[in-house]
Structure formats: structure tokens, C-alpha cells
Fold this protein.
Amino acid sequence: SFFACDEQQKAPESAVDRILSKGVLRIGMDPGYLPFEMKDRQGELMGFDVDLAYLLGDTMGVRVEFIPPSGSYATMLDDLKANRFDIIISGMTITPQRNLKIMFSDPYITVGQAILANNRHRNTIRNADDLNSTNYLVVYLEGTTGAAAVDRFLPRARRIAVSTQQEGVAMVREGRADAFVYDLPAFATLVAKEGKNVFHFIDQPLTFEPIGMGLRFTDHELLNLINNFTRQIQADGTYDTLYDRWFIQ
Ligand code: ARG
């Protein structure tokens, strides 16, 4: 009968089923910067996203495995689609362009792009308009929303892409570039560590960037689990504890 036939049709295994049966949640992460994710000297991962990932693993009763992108930051979208990991947790801004390729959880934090300029510009560059000139060379991290912010706010400036935060910061420090456009919390953490007089940090955000976890379009059960997980920790104080540990107030 129709029903008998239906019963033989096994529902396809969901991402949650697969993660539970393997006992591991594979997380795509590009350890680029604090406070989100960074490798310490021992090669150990640390940061807000890392703590969130461990918490999510605990909640699901599985261990977590961190997997770097195959190429630059943005290749994580294709890596996710190619099933190299189950989710992306990597300070990733939810953008419509990325959302054409993958799903995002509800945002778990909001950041914005900011400008870190060489210290000699302290009295001359007050905002993006001042920096928007062919006289200046700006750097951004390949594949990040910093690139879009440079296009939008600094169309006249000369630009080059770098592949790590360290490289961008070094170029600005040594005056080989005038400024670096990147996520504000990265610069806030850097300036807190190095002191206020090393760089000229313009700390007003240029953009509104909700950060979410990335999932494949098929993985609705996992999306539902993650959104409820996030809401729970935001309401029970767990999230605030993590936030206070990693973010400069
Ligand atoms: N939020 C920015 C973006 O989505 C940059 C994030 C870079 N994060 C990292 N872990 N390397 O493009």
C-alpha cells in the first residue's frame, strides 16, 4: 500500500544524526585574530569562537574538531559546501552575497569595520573621508568584508590585499601602508595590548556586521539547534561570561 511503501523510504540522515553517530562536530575556523580565534605559542586555539564551539560540542555531547580553510578566509564557504566541516564558526559576517551560498545562524554578535592607521597620521586622518585619497595605500585581508568596506568607503585610495592580520599590522606599523581596514574588535584587542600611542586607531565602526555561524542549505535541524543554543546561553548568563572574558569593554 501507499503507507507500506512510505515506511520503507528511510528519511535521509540529517547533519545532527551524522554528528551524533560520529561523535564529532567539525568546525571550519580560520584562526586569524583575537578576540574571535587565534593560535597561541603552543599552537593551541583560543578565543570567543573557540569557547563557543566547545560549549556547543558539550551541549551536543560530542567532541569538536577545528579545521582551517583550504585557502584564504572566504574559501571556507566552498569548503563547507564540499563537506570538509559541518559548520563555520569564524567571526564570519552575514552578508547577502555569502547567504547566496550558505545559510547563517541568527547573529551571535555584531561588529563593524574600522581603520587602523600609522601613528604619523594621528592629527591628519580623522575618518574614512580623510583617508579616501590616492595619496594613501590601504591594506585589507583577502576575502573579508574589509575588502568591501575599502571599495565602498575608500574608492580613491590605493589598496593591496594581505593574507594575515599580522602582515597588515606590520605594514601599518612600519609605514609601508597608511592604514588597515578590518574588524573593529581585532584592532581594539591589539591597541589594548600595545598601548594607545603605537597606532592611530579610528574606533568608529564604518559598517554594521552581524556575525553568524555558517551552515549548508540542507542542515535545518542543526540550524534550529544552534539558534536555540545561542538564545539559551544569551539568557542564562553563559554568553555574558564569555563576552567579558574576550571583549574589551
Ligand atoms: N568579519 C570579517 C568577515 O566576515 C572578517 C573575519 C575574519 N575572521 C577570521 N577568523 N579570520 O569577512
Q: What stands out?
A: The chain has eleven helices and 14 strands. The mean pLDDT is 95. The CA atoms of residues 107 and 212 lie 4 Å apart.
